[in-house]
Design brief:
binds zinc ion; 1 helix; about 10% helix; 3 strands; mainly beta; about 30% strand; 3-stranded antiparallel beta sheet; about 80 residues
Length: about 80
């Protein structure tokens, strides 16, 4: 039986999740729904070359809003 007395740790109640100590690596927001992704940079085309897309090998953990706003690719595994 779990007992929440005066000595129970505060601040985590209502925040259930194995990744509670993990924050989004893009905006730093601690949140649920984090996903490992590769950041993608998109350089706009110019008169001299076509659009260039660069995918970083580094894996970052992003929240839902960041994955909505910024280009990325889900990290495999
Ligand atoms: Zn974020």
């Amino acid at each position: 039986m779990l007992q929440l007395g005066p000595d129970a740790p505060r601040g985590r109640l209502g925040s259930v999740g194995a990744m509670a100590d993990t924050a989004c690596e893009s905006c730093g927001d601690p949140t649920d729904g984090l996903l490992a992704v590769h950041r993608i940079y998109i350089e706009a085309a110019t008169s001299e070359r076509e659009e260039r897309i660069t995918r970083l090998d580094e894996v970052e953990v992003w929240c839902v809003p960041c994955r909505t706003i910024y280009p990325h690719q889900p990290a495999a595994g």
